[in-house]
Amino acid sequence: MTHDAVSSADHTSPDVAAFLRDGRAHLGLELGSTRIKAALVDDAGAVLGTGSHAWENEFAEDNWTYSLEAAWDGIRDCYADLVRDVRERHHVELTQLASIGISAMMHGYLALDADGEQLTPFRTWRNTYTADAAALLSRTFGLNIPLRWSVSHLLHAILGGEEHVGRIDFLTTLSGYVHRRLTGRRVLGVGDASGMFPIAPEGDAYDPTLLARFAALDEAADLPWSLAEILPEVLVAGQDAGSLTAEGAALLDPTGALRPGAVAAPPEGDAGTGMVATQAVDPRTGNVSAGTSAFAMVVLEGPLSGPREEIDLVTTPSGDPVAMIHTNNCTTDLDAWLGLFSRFAELIGRPVDAEELYGALFGAGAEGESDAGGVLSYNYVSGEHQTGVPSGRPLLVREQEARFTLENFMRSQLYGAFGALAVGMEALLKDEGVQLDVMYAHGGIFRTKGVAQQVLADALATPVAVGESAGEGGAWGMALLAAYASGASGDESTVSLSEYLARQVFASQKLTTLQPEEAGMSGHATWLEGYRAGLQVERLAGEVLG
């Protein structure tokens, strides 16, 4: 169980106990790539309890997926963990919530029939077999439509003549699916919806012109439904997304202790909750979320020069335009290497816990040469669209005269975690000239203070700020959206999400900001040049190592 968050009410006061007993707390639940997390907060975002459940995707029949049974098992276990934490911290049984919000991995493909039954295994954002469909949509729409977007997966199924397509009644994301089961509402927050289908310039609905273009495709001519009919309704932060039903409460808490009635926030994707958790919702701010995948979100001041393959156009939870740089790979291979070192420590009879291991090895990476001594790391567990790698194979390569030390190895691993992201960000910051005052960062890789943060600042040539929530941002961000939806800001109809976050949540947050360093920027540029050149080897590895 994890208990590190922005501000924590660990020392129970009568007021906190009464707050919980009165059912005034706000719950955020996020289904991430490797963990399902819960955060319970008060109106100002102070954490009253947390819960966690570990899970993993599986590769079955050439498809990255999670079973919905595993999702519900994990949700229930995570909620039970939260209830235990609240009981231990505050000596209160959790029976009522003021509000609830569901977040999950963006994009992917979850198709249901008229009875709400799953028509095909959940196809996650990690699958890259939709290239032909995405290319056709990009040409048709005049926009970059990523491989992982729901509409790309849908057109892929149509082009493949998959039998289930004609029986689709509802197409949604993982957060939208869970929200529907808990509330009965077929809705989606605009941030998550923007990873299903392009959003109109007004930021509150799907683009009607592009819906018409999809309907005019020859491939869509004989479909028994229109796309607008099967997509969830788009909502912006603070809008009515229903409430927790009796059936939903029983799904979440089979003990029967949890009562229905909690106000539900529009369900969001992990990109949106990352923006909220880092207060990166205003122009010239951005955030990086680093986990199994990595993405950078930059809130735009104006339009880009035109469509680019490296850049997705999505929105904040309030509907403001955002440029997104997404990579399929980030920390998985790094974690695997550190697992190897952990096993070595066990074999020599000197086991170390994870925090100590990561701290020591990240510290070694900080001492490595700024160009990593000629050591290159490709963390591609799956394909990587940012760098044109269709099928990933984790790869460690070094020049013949490379300085292969532990310090340089770890420096290369840290560079590699953000390698594809750095390639995409060059297109946004250098080619498009987008202005960025600060990049907020969160995710487990930043829990070792200062190391990955400095690496990222040097890689992006941008100041990087990390707050106290850096290790556990997503569920907390969703809890803040739930609080905002319930009226915790005082009057959500007049107070914007940005104002609520600035005045009520982040006014007292401690941030640590690191500036890019000349030596680090120069060394990373040299490393990235070698990284780009070596991509041919990575592509060949995917072709040869079946």
Automatic annotation (TrEMBL):
Domain Carbohydrate kinase FGGY C-terminal: 287-485
Domain Carbohydrate kinase FGGY N-terminal: 27-251
One annotated GO molecular function: kinase activity
Family matches, as Gene3D superfamilies: 3.30.420.40
Record bears the keyword Kinase: yes
Pfam families tied to this protein: FGGY_C, FGGY_N
Keyword terms of this UniProt record: Carbohydrate metabolism, Kinase, Transferase, Xylose metabolism
Keyword Magnesium: no
InterPro entries according to UniProt: ATPase_NBD, FGGY_C, FGGY_Carb_Kinase, FGGY_N
Similarity annotation: Belongs to the FGGY kinase family.
Alphabetical list of PANTHER family matching this protein: SUGAR KINASE (PTHR43095), XYLULOSE KINASE (PTHR43095:SF5)
Name of this protein: Sugar (Pentulose or hexulose) kinase
Organism: Brachybacterium sacelli
